[in-house]
Amino acid sequence: MALVFRERKIRKMDLLEMNELLEVIDGLQRSNFPPKKWFDLGLTVGLLLQTLETIESDNRGNPHLCLRACLSKWLARVDNVSRVGQPTFEALGEALCRIGLEDVSEKVLKILDPGMHYFQKYVESQLQISEDTLYMLYTEGLITKKEIAQVEKKGFHLIDEPLKALSDKIADDKEKLIAFANILLISKTPRESQDFALELLRDYGYFIPEPEPEAETETDISPETDTRPETDTAPDTDTTRPETDTAPETDTTRPETDTAPETEPVPDEAAAIPPQPPLPISPSSSPPRPLSSSSSTHNTPPTTPTEETPPANEQPLEPAPPPLTYEDMKTKLSTLLDKLFPIIVNKIGNFADFRHYLDRGLPELRPHLPPTQTFEEATKLVNLRTTVIHVEGYRSLVDRFEMENGKPLVDEYETEIDRFCSQTTLDLVLGIKFLPLVVLKCETIKIAMEWENYHEKTLDHVRELKKTIFGSLYTRITIRQIYWDEEEETIVILLQFPRYLTDSMLVTSQRNVDDVKDLGLAQLLVGHYPIFDRVPDDKELRELYERKRTVQKEVKKLKVAIKEKDELIKKQEEEMEELKKSIEENEEYIELMSVPDDELQERIDNKEKMIKAMDHEIEDLKKQLQENPGVEEELEKAEKEVEVLRTKLAELETQMQEKPPSASLKKDQETQSDPDKEQMTMLESLQLFRFMMTEQRIDIPAIKRIQTDSSSSNEKAAMFLKTVEENPDVLAALRKAKKDLDKSGSSGGGAAGP
Which GO terms describe its biological process (predicted)? Predict the structure, then answer.
């Protein structure tokens, strides 16, 4: 049996007929549809070009008349309309999007939505409601106090202004349509109003879908036909049903549900039944099992074989299974439900018995049971309240009807649930709607926890929290969603429970709330009733609390800013260390560059003279060698010394070529130039750049800009060289600042500069 609901198909009531032409035209006008676009709209919905040209000719190009005629042809399904798409509100909205009118499409679907279409159709009969229903509509935000008084004056008939206001709210939020139908079903309203709610849900496609044909159903059931005689004991099961009638009153004594599984109800989701998308993650409401065994199995690494031979009666440990993912759980749940369905059909046999159990043991399903006619329809009600980690409904079924073939399947799946919950942290499920059902506020529990380390918390922590607060009632509670509230800085857990258990939930939570305050509880709401709130009720205390929260937020922002500054300082220190290391590596070169040009030239001349003298000596030695062979060793030694001197001379000449010419070497310069206007040597550039990077109190604007720039050290060096080359005054001011610092011996000095 397929578990995932199909998208809502086009039903007969969705199709638009010719008598709804004025409604469609009115919706387009209210949505600001430009009539001149009628031709493009006609082509998009499937009308032929020849048909549209005929319309234009017959109406003399009047866009309003042409639009009316175009829509008439569309509703009449002429040309290719049926092939492109049947005339529905959705098809009209899609056509408007294709011609670039997305805003108009959104407004049209809001005004002419099928839900509104059905709603208006049914409420034309002057729907009568009760005082209880009126109060629930108010608490759910569907009507106001002013509208309550108007409904009471009309004899509790929902008509006129209150009906219009309700229609506007439903048009803004389609989930309110399902909430409205839910309220009619679970509140004390006349039978006609409940029938209206069922018809509304069915026609809008949110009630029991049409069964999908499955050819293998009979073959799946046939192996279990030998168990059918056991259904003869159905009359005996009826004798136990009166006990389940008291289930709503005895829920506070649920610890003994293990001995009386027949009184355990199915999962506790709301009465609303919208179409079910692929099954989402949902924390299980099953009793938590000891987690040590499952956790240890998962965390134990694969054992390595040893040299010792294990005993014959022992087997080597198997590697731990990989962590379960959400997709794995969906697959396992689908397999479980496919296997359980034929077992349920064969074991119970009589559908009336099955529906009787659901009606008595699961009161929250009671309003939805009358339309069900088959096992498949009834089990889909249970499926809508079953999630990947919540299978209490099927657990109660297999226990109640003693399905020996079904118990091992459920046991095995619940073991997988325990393993999944112990592995899955909350940060992996934030924002996921575990149950995609429209739930009333009166059936919602909100728990806000101050868990900043929520990424270390698992779904097991949520299950234990639920059990601590609600005791034995925790099996009736299902987790809907978990999300992080940025404003309050809390992790919010939304739960769902059957409305008839409200009193029991309130009493139990009030009794146990003190046990979870120390765990970081910030807020606890059961329905509309606040159980605990960290914000004081007193006005003065509340103001103090708000001020405290504001200060805490500011402190948090400052901590973030300080952290960013620390990271920037650390980065600059690393760059400074790299620069120092670079300077140390080039220390020998810097020392050599510090030798004056005259002295360096003198060294070169001396080396040349020495080489020439050595050459003369070598020539003399060669002559002596010819005369006396004993001096050969002295000659080789002298040649080696000459080679060393030549190598050093070549190095000095290379350095002289690389070094920029100095004013002292210009032979044609008659007078000595100003020292502050001299060209900067390589050595001086390195010294000045190091001085600029290490001394922060230099009072030179151009140098200040380079110091405060966020560029890298290499980029700053390029900026420095460019600045001093283009602006000699900056170079002179920097030289003066360094000179003053060297004289005073202080840590830094300032010099005025441009």
Answer: signal transduction
Residue 703 burial (CB count, 10 A): 23
Cα–Cα dist 401/259, whole Å: 14
Q: Residue 581 domain-assigned?
A: yes
Q: Are 697 and 729 found together in one domain?
A: yes
Region 467-473: mean pLDDT is: 90
Residue with the bigger pLDDT between 77 and 649: it is 77
R_g of the chain, CA atoms, integer Å: 44
Same domain, 338 and 390: yes
Q: Are residues 565 and 599 in the same domain?
A: no
Determine, yes or no, domain membership for 304: no
Q: Is the pLDDT of residue 94 over 70?
A: yes
Number of domain units in the chain: 7
Per DSSP, 664 falls in state G
Q: Are residues 266 and 381 located together in one domain of the fold?
A: yes
pLDDT, one tens digit per residue, over 393-424 is: 888 888 888 898 889 999 999 999 898 899 88
Tokens, residue 102? 């997305």
Range of the domain at 528: 428-533
| Beta pairing class for 529-533 and 490-496 | unpaired
Mean pLDDT within 581-600: 73
The answer to whether residue 8 scores a pLDDT higher than 50 is no
- The DSSP bridge partners found for residue 448 are 492, 523
What pLDDT, on the 0 to 100 scale, is given for residue 481?
Answer: 86
Do 384 and 410 sit in the same domain of this protein?
Answer: yes
Residue 362 reports pLDDT greater than 80: no
pLDDT at 330 over 70: yes
Round to whole Å and give the CA distance between 328 and 333.
9
Q: Cα–chain-centroid distance for residue 106?
A: 26
Q: Are 432 and 485 in contact (CB under 8 A)?
A: no
Instruction: Answer for the pair 589, 682: CB distance below 8 angstroms, yes or no.
Output: no
Q: Could you tell me which residue, 190 or 21, shows the higher pLDDT?
A: 21
- Average pLDDT over all residues of the chain: 72
Please say which residue of 625, 659, 693 terminates a domain.
659
Q: How far apart are CA 521 and CA 534, in angstroms?
A: 8
What distances in angstroms separate CA 538 from CA 448, 449, 530, 550, 662, one per listed residue? 21, 22, 15, 18, 84
Residue 527, sorted as left (phi over 0), alpha (psi -120 to 50) or beta, turns out to be left
Q: What is the pLDDT of residue 470?
A: 92
CA–CA distance, 329 with 420 (Å, rounded to integer): 8
What local confidence, expressed as pLDDT, does residue 658 receive?
63
Query: Would the pLDDT of 660 be above 50?
Result: yes
Transcribe 545-606 into DSSP letters. HHHHHHHHHHHHHHHHHHHHHHHHHHHHHHHHHHHHHHHHHTHHHHHHHTS-HHHHHHHHHH
Residue 381 covered by a domain: yes
CB atoms within 10 A of CB 701: 12
- The answer as to whether 668 is a domain residue is no
259 and 281: one domain? yes
Give the count of beta carbons closer than 10 Å to the beta carbon of residue 223: 12
Residue that finishes a domain, picked among 368, 396, 424: 424
Amino acid at 13: M
Q: Are both 524 and 443 inside the same structural domain?
A: yes
The strand order across the sheet containing 521-526 reads 478-485, 490-496, 444-449, 521-526, 529-533
Write down the pLDDT at residue 241: 36
